[in-house]
């Protein structure tokens, strides 16, 4: 009960801070919307190419945009924690009887809620454009996005606690985020890629997340892509939460 109470108290306060300044959450939608309106129409001419997934250009592309939003939105949440470390806010939390796991979960839940709201808004915008979504698949896609947010935000917070510097954190995240993005099949399905890129993408967990989201959108709820994506991202999310919690505990010792 103490864990739940502490998590809720911290989440309520952090979420309140976010709602008082929602402009940053809205800015996080700008890049995905640019891709949706300015890039997705370019795919209309390649939907008939052998290897292009079924469902139409927008139905294939929109799940990738959702994963991209999780990738770039959640992976950079650590910058806020660096600022709070410098201000002494985290240090003040550490000396309280607040549960250390709750300290991590409060921030992670805020990130999940923000990503869910952004995703629902993006989907509402995409539906009139011609995107077709299986209702049950949509619910499972949102669950997959939550796991992605837990995984990426946890890693970002753990790195922020270890590095304690925006420049170092920025360099590290930018180094890894671009190849992960390019090898995930977000912009173009990996079925169109040459064998060497497909081989490299097989080591990228976000490629499995994109494939799972695309399968869910067209109603393939129990496909191998969905099972692989959920198992892999779920395992990574669990390991990442354990990592950030342990890092938080060590930092307070």
List the helices and strands and how they pair.
Blueprint: H1 2-20, H2 23-27, H3 30-39, H4 57-74, H5 78-87, H6 89-94, H7 100-126, H8 135-163, H9 166-182, H10 195-201, H11 205-217, H12 224-251
Helix pairs in contact: 1-7, 3-4, 4-7, 4-8, 4-11, 5-8, 7-8, 7-12, 8-9, 8-11, 8-12, 11-12
Structure description:
With 253 residues, this protein is mostly helical. It has one domain. It has helices at 2-20, 23-27, 30-39, 57-74, 78-87, 89-94, 100-126, 135-163, 166-182, 195-201, 205-217, 224-251. The longest helix has 29 residues, at 135-163. The radius of gyration is 19 Å and the shape is elongated. The model has no long low-confidence stretch (mean pLDDT 90). This is Transport permease protein. Its main location: membrane. Residues 23-251 form the ABC transmembrane type-2 domain.
Short description:
By secondary structure, this protein is mostly helical. It contains twelve helices and no strands. Helix 7 (100-126) packs antiparallel against helix 12 and helix 8 packs parallel to helix 12 (224-251).
């Amino acid at each position: 009960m103490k864990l739940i109470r502490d998590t809720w108290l911290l989440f309520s306060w952090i979420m309140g801070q976010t709602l008082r300044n929602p402009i940053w959450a809205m800015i996080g939608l700008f890049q995905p919307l640019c891709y949706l309106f300015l890039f997705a129409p370019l795919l209309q001419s390649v939907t008939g190419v052998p290897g292009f997934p079924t469902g139409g250009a927008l139905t294939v592309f929109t799940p990738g945009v959702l994963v991209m939003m999780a990738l770039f939105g959640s992976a950079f949440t650590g910058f806020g924690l660096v600022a709070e470390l410098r201000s002494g806010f985290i240090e003040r939390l550490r000396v309280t009887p607040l549960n250390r796991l709750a300290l991590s979960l409060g921030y992670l839940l805020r990130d999940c809620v923000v990503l869910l709201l952004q995703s629902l808004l993006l989907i509402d915008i995409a539906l009139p454009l011609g995107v077709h979504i299986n209702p049950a698949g949509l619910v499972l896609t949102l669950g997959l996005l939550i796991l992605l947010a837990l995984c990426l935000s946890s890693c970002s917070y753990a790195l922020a606690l270890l590095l304690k510097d925006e420049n170092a954190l920025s360099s590290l995240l930018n180094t890894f985020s671009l190849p992960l993005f390019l090898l995930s099949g977000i912009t173009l399905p990996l079925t169109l890629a040459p064998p060497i890129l497909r081989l490299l993408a097989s080591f990228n967990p976000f490629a499995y997340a994109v494939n799972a989201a695309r399968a869910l959108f067209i109603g393939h709820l129990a496909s191998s892509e969905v099972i692989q994506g959920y198992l892999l991202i779920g395992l990574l999310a669990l390991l990442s939460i354990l990592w950030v919690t342990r890092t938080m505990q060590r930092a307070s010792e």
